[in-house]
Amino acid sequence: MCSVSVVQDYMRREVAPNQWTRPMFNEYKEILKRLEALDERLGQADCEDPAKATWMREVEDRLKALEA
After folding, report:
1. Each residue of 14-64: pLDDT tens digit?
2. What is the pTM of this model?
3. Is residue 8, in this structure, part of any structural domain at all?
4. Distance separating alpha carbons of residues 2 and 45, to the nearest angstrom
5. Count of domains for the chain
6. Residue 41, CB half-sphere, CA atoms under 13 Å: how many?
7. Burial of residue 59, with CB atoms counted within 10 A of its CB: 0-12 exposed, 13-18 middle, 19 or more buried
8. CA distance from start to end of the chain
9. Is residue 2 part of a domain?
10. Is residue 1 over pLDDT 70?
C-alpha cells in the first residue's frame, strides 16, 4: 500500500470533516503531494481510491461553503 493511502485512511478515520480549516487542509494536501513524490521514488503503485477522492472533495466543498 502506498504511503498516500495509509495517511488518507488514517485522516478519514480520525479527523471529522467539520474539524478541518482551510490552512490545515492546505497543509494536508501539501503533505499528500510530498508523499506522492516519495511513493514515486520508491516505485510504489498509484493507489488512488475513489472513496478517498470523494472524501477530499466533500471536505473541500465544505470549506468553500464556509468561506463564501
Report:
1. 998 889 999 999 999 999 999 999 999 999 877 777 888 899 999 999 999
2. 0.85
3. no
4. 7
5. 1
6. 6
7. buried
8. 37
9. no
10. no
Examine residue 14 and state whether it is found in any structural domain, yes or no: no
Question: Per residue, what are the HEC states of the chain?
Answer: CCHHHHHHHHHHHHCCHHHCCHHHHHHHHHHHHHHHHHHHHHCCCCCCCHHHHHHHHHHHHHHHHHHC
Amino acid (one-letter) located at 62: R
Distance CA 53, CA 55 (A): 5
Domain with 25, as residue range(s), is: 20-40+50-68
Q: Which residue has the cell 487542509?
A: 25
Neighbours of 61 (CB within 10 A): 11
